[in-house]
Write a structure and sequence with these properties.
The chain has helices at about 10-15, 60-70, 85-90, 95-110, 165-170, 180-185, 190-200, 220-225, 230-250, 280-290, 290-300, 305-320, 330-340, 380-385, 390-405, 410-420, 430-440, 445-455, and strands spanning about 5-10, 30-35, 40-45, 80-85, 115-125, 130-135, 135-140, 155-160, 175, 200-205, 205-210, 215, 250-260, 265-270. With about 450 residues, it is an alpha+beta fold. Helix 17 (about 430-440) runs antiparallel to helix 18. It is globular, with a radius of gyration of 24 Å.
Length: about 450
């Protein structure tokens, strides 16, 4: 499978685990009740008989959709639009007919299965526990080349995530998820268990500090993983292979089972090096274009406080036009972090950690600007599309267009638009510039109508 960079997971989903950690499922529902921090929590799933409850590879799809939604700017309406080929890449799957069929089934299952959470859905900004009822995907549309609805290379997918999930993500109730590591694991059940464990490490009321060890009852853990058995031997066998792989791959330091029968306990000890950065710091680094591996190295070398102060300082200097970025924000920020004494403070406090700094406070808005590493001029739209393959250009253009026009262009329009870009029939840069101009002039309807007409002439 293709490795993907680290992304994020929504904390309610990872804690409650709505995807059964089995490779195959033949049940249409599950109903789990457990106690958490003095509260009784009930989580229920009901699915259509033809699909069974969400399981296995569905975990890859939910992780991909969460990060797709975040990457397109977390729109308030929860909508997303993506090509099937791009979603396959986000899932870490091969772009073949087999996986096109699997993807469609996973999406249909996530759209038709209903969830009910009583007393266990966290409204973190308000510090409250709420009830939630939803389908992971509330609406789903897609284009197809035949009457069966089979996905192909041209398929475009549009959908809307559940309001509860959208509200939680937009409030920042997320945690880092190392998808590069997750997608490198050999089986769906191991990937699902990794995601469950990584969510269980976080205290839902204080998610800033992950745990180094976790102890759970064997029977209760089977409920958490949605393993359809209460027989201890069956549960141990279902978890044995994922446990072995997670230890071998260095995520778990050890897995210890103690006790007898239904009183057995599992103790997980995590390898400290896998402790991820907090979500706020990780998301902020991503905003500058700093790779996740580089960000983790910076945290180990400099500490969280120093890095946040450097980013605040960088933003202030750029805002006041003291620093003009001419290469990339990532390179410019890295230079400031590693050479802090070469930059003024512009009225900010000197960083409290990291290397010693001696730069004087700024006295003139543009003082020292000439002798600094010129930071960067924002890239033009043409620069963003430079060097991309036709498929990459098409997917990027669909994402850009969808930001303002997702209510005016349906899935069939986007299918035609994407294919026209791939075929080289549209000047994508000029068209996107026109689309932005139309937004500024409040002429979105006119632009959409003209684009529909142009696509209809193909």
């Amino acid at each position: 499978m293709t490795a993907k960079p680290s992304r994020f997971d929504e904390l309610n989903l990872s804690r409650l685990n709505l995807i059964s950690a089995v490779d195959q499922a033949d049940t249409n529902e599950w109903d789990v009740t457990f106690e958490s921090q003095g509260r009784v929590v009930r989580v229920k799933c009901e699915a259509l008989p033809k699909y069974a409850v969400p399981h296995g590879l569905d975990s890859d799809v939910t992780a991909a959709l969460i990060n797709l939604y975040m990457e397109v700017g977390e729109p308030e309406d929860g909508r997303f639009t993506v090509s099937a080929t791009t979603l396959l890449k986000l899932c870490g799957w091969h772009n073949t007919g087999k996986y096109h069929a699997i993807l469609r089934t996973c999406l249909e299952r996530l759209h038709t299965s209903s969830y009910s959470v009583s007393g266990g859905w966290r409204d973190h900004p308000k510090g409250r526990w709420t009830h939630a009822k939803f389908h992971f995907i509330e609406s789903l549309d897609f284009s197809s080349g035949d009457r069966t609805g089979a996905f192909d290379e041209r398929t475009m997918i549009s959908g809307r995530l559940a309001d509860a999930i959208v509200a939680s993500i937009r409030s920042g109730y997320v945690k880092p998820l190392d998808t590069e590591f997750m997608l490198s694991l050999s089986r769906p059940r191991t990937r699902a268990l990794y995601r469950i464990l990584d969510g269980a490490r976080f205290d839902p009321q204080n998610p800033e500090q992950p745990l180094d060890a976790l102890e759970v009852s064997l029977i209760g853990w089977a409920d958490q993983c949605k393993i359809p058995s209460t027989i201890p031997g069956n549960i141990r066998r279902a978890l044995s292979s994922p446990h072995d792989e997670l230890v071998k791959r260095g995520y778990l330091r050890s897995v210890t089972l103690t006790g007898r029968g239904k009183e057995q306990m599992i103790r997980y000890e995590f390898v400290r090096e896998f402790t991820p950065m907090d979500a706020v710091l990780a998301r902020r680094f991503r905003g500058y274009g700093v790779a996740d591996g580089v960000a983790r190295k910076l945290v180990r070398e400099h500490g969280r406080t120093f890095l946040i102060e450097c980013m605040d300082r960088f933003d202030l200097l750029v805002r006041d036009a003291v620093l003009v970025v001419k290469k990339s924000k990532a390179a410019a920020l890295m230079h400031l972090i590693t050479h802090p004494d070469e930059y003024p403070f512009a009225g900010t406090q000197k960083p409290t950690g990291g290397p010693a700094v001696s730069a004087p406070a700024l006295t003139s808005p543009r003082a020292k600007a000439g002798r600094m590493e010129p930071l960067l001029a924002m890239p033009s739209l043409a620069d963003e599309f430079q060097g991309l393959t036709p498929e990459q250009m098409a997917d990027k253009a669909v994402s850009r267009l969808g930001f303002h026009y997702r209510r005016l262009l349906d899935i069939a329009d986007l299918d035609l638009f994407r294919q026209a870009v791939i075929d080289g029939e549209l000047d994508v840069v000029a068209l996107l510039e026109d689309s932005v101009t139309a937004v500024a002039k409040m002429k979105k309807d006119e632009f959409a109508r003209e684009l529909k007409w142009r696509l209809g002439q193909r």
